[in-house]
Amino acid sequence: MLSVLRRTLVSQSRQFSTNRIAVEGFxxxxxxxxxxxxxxxxxxxxxxxxxxxxxxNPGGSIKDRAAVGVIRDAEEQGLIKPGGTVVEGTAGNTxxxxxxxxxxRGYKCVIFMPxxxxxxxxxxxRMLGAEVHAVPAVPYENPQNYNHQARDYAKNLTNAxxxxxxxxxxNAYAHYIxxxxxxxxxxxxxxxxxxxxxxxxxTLAGVGKYLKEKSEGETQIWLADPPGSVLYQYVSTGGxxxxxxxxxxxxxxxxxxVTDNLATFFEDLSGALHISDEKSIAMVYELLDxxxxxxxxxxxxxxxxxVELAQKLGKGSKVVTVLCDGAYRYQSRLFSxxxxxxxxxxxxxxxHLRKYAVLD
Length: 360
Fold this sequence. Notes:
Helix content is about 40%, strand content about 15%. The chain has 16 helices and ten strands. The radius of gyration is 20 Å and the shape is globular.
């Protein structure tokens, strides 16, 4: 597979690897992202590790796929008409994707989000014309949880939908018909493992289902989990759901429950990995230094998990993960010396990489 990859790279050395066929608007440009061979980590492990460059979607993240999927599903069902309102509870990237889609299709966008999210995300949503309600971060069981507030707000409007990204399985289906097939084609069906973190569960469930079917069960599908989430323990214990505690620097991933999207694939998971914030932040800096990739903490967590899964599967194994978004939406935190120190993470970054923490 690697020789094929190298021949492809050589053939593209004098041209950009873009699709020259015109697409229609924002929604037509979502997907078909490159699969990046992570050379340094691959060489270090003796495996082949790849990251799907979802930060190259037009809205800047993998959540563009879910945004297009849930809105198209609502349109096909006749749940929203021209000029209607799309409402969602989101930690940021799905809201950004929805705001882009709404602008392109003439809908109003209203977003409820936890007030713990980065200012860059909030500012971008407002720049895209979304009405943003930043509300206190409380557990899902609390009626004031941002998802419940979004649901209730939509109920009081006419010609409006709550897209319900966590439990609307059109989310997972969007990945089943796009991300999964793209990965299978880009690896030419030669893939031993796929791993990623989950917030809604859409990516893991949709991609996992497709790869399992195409490989006839041979490809292993693993869940990666940050601190403060219960899913690692839930998978590892065969279904014992513990009370959620702690927190993580990552945004938009980790869960205190099994969403309907994740439930569509949960029984077929091969296993789970717990990834510490220390490992994630160190990988943010390593990927920037060795690959020139400026990625957010959730992408870095996924790469750490891909490395650990590759080591579990053995030398020569081929593992794919997703690079969810870039660091641009988190740079005031991830590259701030003061913020890193406050989080107790400054020591997690190797000395030779601390030069990239340029913000005070």
